[in-house]
Q: What sequence folds into this?
C-alpha cells in the first residue's frame, strides 16, 4: 500500500490507495478509541493539570474518537494561530482553542469526513461551553500533504500541532515541507508520533491494519531527524518518549523484531539561525518564572529544564529557540555570539582532532545538550 519507494505515476496511485485505506480505517472500521488493536494511537501519558481542566470542557462524542499518541499542548498560546494536522474528531483542537482564547484561532485539517462531522457537529456546543462570544475554531477538509491547496497563507501560523498522524502519510517529506511553509519565522511544529528502532520493511508497510494502527508507517527515528533537518528544521528537539506495545498476538508477531515508541518533538522554524550542531558561545539564560502554570521551572525539551532565577548555560541553538520565539519575554539573556568556544560540551559530536588538549572538544561545562 504505502508508496515510499515507488516513483512517478505509480507513487501517486499508491498514495491515493493509502489515503483511501486510512480514511476507511478512521471513518468506518474504528468507531471509538477502544476499537484500536494496539496502544500506538493511545498511550497513557500523565496529563498536565491545565490539559485535564481543558479536557473536562470537551464533548464526549469528541473524546470517544480520540486516537492520539501524546500530548500536544505547548505553552504560551494565548492569542496565537494554531493548526492541527489530522485533527480527527477535534479533541486537541478543542483543548487548544481554550489555550489560544477568544483572540486566537485553532484550525483543524483532516481528510476523513466521518471524523470531521463529529468535530464540526460540536463547534457551537464548545463555543458556548468556553463562554466565547464567537467561535475560534475552524475545520478544513484536506490532505496534510496538500496544505497549499487550502486557504492558509504561507508564514501565517504560530504553532502547528499533530497527534499520531505523520506516520499515516505516504509522503512524509511533503508534509514537513508544507509545515515549514506555513509557519511564521519563530513558529514551531510541536507534535507526537510513532517511531521505529529501524526501517520498517516493505511487506509490513503494505499491511493495512498495521499501517492504520499507526505502526508500520512509522519512520525510523534517525531518518525522521535527518528529514526534518533537510526541510529546514535544523535542530529537532525531543520532548518525551514512551514505548509502544502491540496488544494483539497476531500483529505483535509480525513486528516482534522492531521496537516502536511514541515521541513528542518540537521543531522550530528559525531560518538561517540554527546550526547543525550545538555550538558554544559562552551564553546563558535565566528563566523568569513567568510561563503560565510553570512558576518554578520550565522544560524546553527532555534535557533543558530551567529553574527560575538560576543561570543556565546554553548553546547557540537553544539561545535562538528562546530568543527568537514566543518564549523570549520569559528569559533574561546573558552573552552574545561574539566569541565561539567550540562545540558545546556533551552535545554528542566531538572531534578527535584535539583530543586531550581541552580545545574544540567542548569547554563550556554547560547544561545544554
Ligand atoms: C490516529 S488518528 C489521530 C486523530 C487525532 N489527531 C486524535 O488525536 O484523535 C489519524 C487522523 O489523521 C487523519 N489523516 C491521516 N492521514 C491524513 C492525511 N494524509 N491528510 C489528512 N488527514 C489525515 C485521519 O483521517 C485520522 O483522523
A:
Amino acid at each position: 500500500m504505502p508508496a515510499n519507494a515507488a516513483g512517478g505515476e505509480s507513487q501517486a496511485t499508491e498514495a491515493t490507495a493509502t489515503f483511501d485505506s486510512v480514511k476507511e480505517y478512521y471513518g468506518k472500521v474504528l468507531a471509538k478509541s477502544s476499537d484500536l488493536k494496539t496502544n500506538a494511537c493511545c498511550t497513557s501519558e500523565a496529563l498536565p493539570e491545565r490539559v485535564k481542566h481543558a479536557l473536562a470542557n470537551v464533548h464526549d462524542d469528541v473524546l470517544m474518537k480520540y486516537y492520539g499518541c501524546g500530548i500536544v499542548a505547548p505553552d504560551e498560546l494565548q492569542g496565537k494561530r494554531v493548526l492541527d494536522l489530522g485533527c480527527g474528531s477535534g479533541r486537541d483542537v478543542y483543548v487548544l482553542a481554550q489555550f489560544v482564547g477568544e483572540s486566537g484561532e485553532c484550525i483543524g485539517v483532516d481528510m476523513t469526513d466521518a471524523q470531521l462531522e463529529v468535530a464540526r457537529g460540536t463547534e457551537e456546543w464548545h463555543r458556548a461551553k468556553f463562554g466565547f462570544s464567537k467561535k475560534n475554531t475552524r475545520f478544513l477538509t484536506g490532505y496534510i500533504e496538500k496544505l497549499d491547496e487550502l486557504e492558509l497563507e504561507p508564514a501565517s501560523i504560530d504553532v502547528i500541532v499533530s497527534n499520531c498522524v505523520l506516520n499515516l502519510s505516504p509522503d512524509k517529506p511533503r508534509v514537513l515541507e508544507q509545515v515549514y511553509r506555513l509557519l511564521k519565522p519563530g513558529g514551531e511544529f510541536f507534535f507526537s508520533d510513532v517511531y521505529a528502532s529501524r526501517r520498517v520493511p516493505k511487506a509490513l508497510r503494505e499491511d493495512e491494519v498495521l499501517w492504520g494502527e499507526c505502526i508500520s508507517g512509522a519512520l525510523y527515528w534517525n531518518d525522521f531527524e535527518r528529514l526534518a533537518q533537510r526541510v529546514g528544521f535544523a535542530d529537532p528537539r525531543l520532548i518525551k518518549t514512551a514505548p509502544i506495545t502491540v496488544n494483539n498476538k497476531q500483529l505483535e508477531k509480525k513486528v516482534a523484531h522492531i521496537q516502536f515508541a511514541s515521541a513528542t518533538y518540537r521543531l522550530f522554524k528559525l531560518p538561517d539561525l540554527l546550526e547543525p550542531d550545538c555550538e558554544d558561545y559562552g551564553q546563558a539564560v535565566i528563566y523568569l518564572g513567568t510561563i503560565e502554570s510553570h512558576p518554578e521551572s520550565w522544560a524546553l525539551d527532555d534535557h533543558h529544564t530551567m529553574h527560575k532565577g538560576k543561570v543556565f548555560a546554553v548553546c547557540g541553538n537553544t539561545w535562538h529557540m528562546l530568543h527568537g520565539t514566543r518564549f523570549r519575554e520569559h528569559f533574561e539573556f546573558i552573552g552574545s555570539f561574539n566569541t565561539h568556544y567550540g562545540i558545546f560540551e556533551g552535545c554528542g559530536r566531538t572531534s578527535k582532532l584535539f583530543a586531550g588538549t581541552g580545545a574544540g572538544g567542548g569547554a563550556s561545562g554547560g547544561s545544554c545538550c
